[in-house]
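Researcher: Let's try something more involved. This one mixes different molecule types, so please make sure each is placed in the same coordinate frame as the others.
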Amino acid sequence: MSGFWGVTRAIVGREFLRFIHQRERFIAALVRPLVWLLIFAAGFRAALGLSIIPPYQTYITYETYIVPGLCAMVLLFNGMQSSLSLVYDREMGSMRLLLTSPFPRWWLLFCRLFGSTAISILQVYAFLAIAAAFGITLPTLGYIAVLPGLVLGGLMLGALGLVLSSFISQLENFAGVMNFVIFPMFFLSSALYPLWKMAESSPLLRDICALNPFTHVVELIRFLLYLQLNWHALAWVVLSTVALTLLAVWGYDPARGLMKRKG
Amino acid sequence: MGQVGRTRDQSETGGHAAMTGGLSVRDLSFHYGQKCALDAVSLDVAPGRFCALLGPNGAGKSTLVSLLTRLLVAPEGDIHIAGHDLRTAPRKALAALGVVFQQPTLDLNLTVRQNLGYFAALHGLPRGEVPGRIDAALGRLDMRARADEKARALNGGHRRRMELARALLHEPKVLLLDEPTVGLDAAARAAITAHVHDLAEQGLCVLWTTHLTDEVRDSDALLVLHRGQILHAGITGEIRGDAPLSDWFLAQTGAAA
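Model: All components are placed in one shared frame. Result:
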């Protein structure tokens, strides 16, 4: 049993060390949501009228509305970034080192997933701290209550990254992930606009948004930040996490042939 | 066909490596879609043996290495590492296997000691033993003084030595090296080849894949892999006869084309 714990510590520790050595990555991960929050939202607040919808009890500014969506955005980009580094690891060979460990492969993958999630969460809190410094604050206890939601959302999006990395054979194909996964997931969600607003323009798009698991990550985070639990979102996120994790384990099954390429 | 028959005979004289703790492969086949990469490959390497697996590019060496390290699993054939079946007891089999991959697998931002520590944890070595084992492993390769340097600061030869030290950290029974001298200068190449020969003399079972004939000694076991099949198996000096190994190898793989 101590061996399992040792593996976890080593893999998570390595993720942290890599993170520390890539300061540009940390800054990029912070700048992205801050640009949205401080520039996009400022410009957009006049254009978009928000009514009072749960979990909010008063009128809120647009900046306040998009904070949960931007937290989820940090998780999304990080999950994809970590799968990008998995593809890179595979080309470089350090993935081989990891997968030839005698520990079960699903455990190794889970540790990796857990490590990248921990780093995502660190970045979310850094983002929330800067947002607070600019006067966009949330209920104090909400900062703690949101933690389980961030863990779950991070695991879900990390698992999605794992799935993608197991199907992408080369680094070059990764640009497609940006276009076909990150942007649609982000824009077809409640991160930037509430779903009822979307329904005004297109009921079909609203339905797609409602099916998008990323929407439910955003809503889970939004409600937890205001000390409420959105059971519907929670169920969706748990279900997606389980499904994506199973798919990732299947994707990395050696009999299926992750390494099925020459070289 | 005659040569394949001979392969069988020769490999069986190698003893029952599956029983004695070496490496044993039986009827291993693997296909990439339609393309056959390995065709019913069988081989045995006994403990204390340095076995060179010689093959031109595209012979199937990389596929064999992926199968031996369980990065791939073949639908047909059996692999035993130190008596453990890789299919039914993968954890025990992988625990008995040390690997030096062709691709560099070091984390260049970490120190030598951190790299080895990471590996030790991946293999579940008891935490208290790790520093001592790392010192011993680095000491054997004269790398102890470099333990706290970043991997990035090491030259190619030293990085390889460090990967070798790492592969021995969990005291494997079988050591697999996949073209370990690629990109090294002549001196580093000679040093690492000599060191691994010493390890075999001390009782380790070594499988060394290469396409460079000068890394193979006359007393080494030799397997020639060509187009997914074992063309020859035996002792290098006996197989090559009077011809230099490089000429003999070229004639074999050229003529068989």
